[in-house]
Amino acid sequence: MAPKVLVSDKLSATAVQIFRDRGIDVDFEPDLGKDRNKLLSVISQYDGLAIRSATKATEKIINAASNLKVIGRAGIGVDNIDRVAASKKGVIVMNTPFGNMITAAEHAIAMMFAVARQIPEASASTHAGKWEKSKFMGVELTSKTLGVIGAGNIGGIVCERAVGLKMKVVAYDPFLSEDRANKLGVEKVELAALFERADFISLHVPKTDQTTNIISVEAIAKMKPGVRIINCARGGLVDEKALALAIKSGHVAGAAFDVFETEPATNSPLFNLPNVVCTPHLGAATTEAQENVAIQVAEQMSDYLLTGAVSNALNMPSVTSEEAKVMGPWLQLVGYLGAFIGQMTDEPINAINILYDGTVSEMNMEALNCGVIAGIMKTGNPDVNMVSAPVIALERGIQISTTNQNKSGVFDAYIKVTVVTPKRERSVAGTVFSDRKPRFIQIKGINIDAAIGRHMLYTTNTDVPGIIGLLGTIMGRNGVNIANFTLGRADAGGEAIALLNVDEAIGDNVLADLGATGKFSQVSRLEFDV
């Protein structure tokens, strides 16, 4: 059955057609996002939800979406999606951070021009039949210093455009390297220095605990008189009340805002102040940008639903289509390794340590880590997946660590998973052979070569004669057919293990008969999603 996607906001016809061309069953209901009750009643039918800003993907909506696998936001901001609820539910949240970069950057530049030359007020005055030429004295941008807070995708474009306007650009961004700053033609500075030097300040950072009110009363006090502030990034980055007071006092000469603390913004301390330009969140509002982000989200969602490729996900590592092809067997393997450990562990887990050896260490380890954790967590909760598992592990305080090493054994690559509990450590290792089929190659440090089947039996015992016959006899007596039988031991007469691949689920009667022999120190049935 084809995956089914609901488009509940106004996306372009091109995007809707992309879903259809890719074989996705799509329902285009552009006004449904405004009707939460109706959305709640139908959302369980869909594998994917494509939205813009009108649809609110709340915890209630997400919890009702029993089949939902992915939410795609055509745009950058995901304030209208409960990402925590989505992650716990195992739903991937995607956005499209690159589709409207040019448009957003151009809007910031346009707003800077507007506040520098008081264009909106001059236009309104002229429309009113006035000719107040001397009233609207502006300033040039050439040779002025622009302070850019956040020099990422959009901020970087603003820097380039400003350099082209012959402005001096200083940038504050903890992640901006000196090499990148040199390529942009900007000077990397600390935030305090930016406040002291800038004639214009433009913000291009997300709203986080660290960036909320990054322009505060204290910050404004450090700025030079006559500074102009532009915010086309996110509401809440600027203390609007503090800025309004600074404009009224004359310390700040003007401001241009496209975003506000509360949206829709029907009231703000900045409204109706002199030389304050306000627009209703138009940063991405161009025909080109809306088309770009709609197409991008349709392609990303289709790729994930059809091939497992993950792009621009906010709660899971990205995996390209090519990576998905190469990593497919390895993602299966880490799921099996995790499932083995999970089924063998009945104690609280303190830590999960994952070793990548050889060529697999060059793959997307973030995705592989998620697969391991999901395999372990599925034992207690079958609804867990690669998205929700890391969230659950974090909530439980489980420490995750990884180690990479060059080829150190007979295999070109292998993965070893070790779980630490208050009482013991338990480990299992596996690899993928040339037939692209995963194998277990080591359990408890004992080397084996075991194919993985849906129904398996694991036993441990002292290495003595007769164990193979005993296992075969009990299995035969209980009508269980053995498909594959693998043995391994540490040393002659030491600890030995057996791993049996059987045709049907092993019943309690088999476990009881094996336990009654007194020959086995451990007997466990295992189930794998093969």
Q: Which terms would index this structure?
A:
530 residues, alpha/beta, Rossmann fold, 60s Ribosomal Protein L30, Chain: A, 4 domains, 6-stranded mixed β-sheet, 17 helices
What does this structure look like?
- The protein is built from 17 helices and 22 strands.
- The relative contact order is 0.08.
- A hairpin with a 2-residue loop joins strand 17 (438-443) and strand 18.
- The model has no long low-confidence stretch (mean pLDDT 92).
- The protein has 530 residues and is α/β, with parallel strands linked by helices.
- The two termini are 20 Å apart.
- The strands form four sheets. The chain has a seven-stranded parallel beta sheet with strand order 8-7-6-9-10-11-12, with helices on both faces.
- It folds into four domains: 4-96 and 288-307, NAD(P)-binding Rossmann-like Domain (Rossmann fold, 3-Layer(aba) Sandwich), CATH 3.40.50.720; 101-278, NAD(P)-binding Rossmann-like Domain (Rossmann fold); 317-438, 60s Ribosomal Protein L30, Chain: A (2-Layer Sandwich); 444-530, Alpha-Beta Plaits (2-Layer Sandwich), CATH 3.30.70.260.
- The chain is elongated.
Summarize the structure.
With 530 residues, the protein is of the alpha/beta class.
